[in-house]
Fold:
Amino acid sequence: MKNLEKKVAIVTGGNSGIGYAAAAELTAKGAKVIITGRNKEALAKAEKELNVTGIVSDQSDLKSIDSLVEQVKNQFGKVDILFLNAGIASFAPVDSASEEHYDSIMNVNVKGVYFTVQKVLPILNDGGSIIFNTSINAHVGMPNSSVYASSKAAVLSLNKVFATELAPRKIRVNAVSPGPVETPLYGKLGLEKAEVEGFGAVLAEKILLKRFGQSSEIAKTVGFLASDDASFITGTEIVVDGGLTVNAVV
Structure:
């Protein structure tokens, strides 16, 4: 159902994984979609495949965010939907995590997200929708994920505060927290294919539905939160994890 016709959406990090699937979902619902990414070639490929507008932008660079907003304003005027999907994930134990490890994650996942919202607000229509892509890592205490988990927990806090601050403008602010999802991300973590498959097999047994999620399944939740079907939902986190976080330990 095309319930997002005449809407304009920004999807950060929209050239792969969940961002790509979300851009496809929002487009299918009738929205005009702008995707961002740091890789010019990957962005151009996604732009062509999805029939969307691609803008090269680095979420960790505030000047780059300014440029993004200016380009969107000049080309589209106002926007209605902001899906803050761009983020990075890397892992290290607390006894050896470096300052670079900490700063690289926080600069993109927290600082970049915070200032993207701030800088997009002037061109975001009243009654619009902001959606954060967070993670169940903020809740589960997975070893070696302290900085990444902290970054997602911080965004969940922003989710509630922004929902309160932006309520006078009827802007709804929500978060979607995926569990394990089959995305290219796992290939970027320095793991061999066999290691990823072995990890996946063990983890899948902990998931009530006995499988990893698909990016398209997360995207459908994003599409719901972006639409008027979610008109009375704000300040909420929707967990999409196949039942992982409610599985009994014994």
User: Anything to note?
Assistant: Helices lie at 17-28, 40-50, 62-76, 99-120, 137-140, 146-166, 193-206, 215-226. DSSP finds eight helices and nine strands in the chain. Residues 99-120 form the longest helix (22 residues). The mean pLDDT is 93.
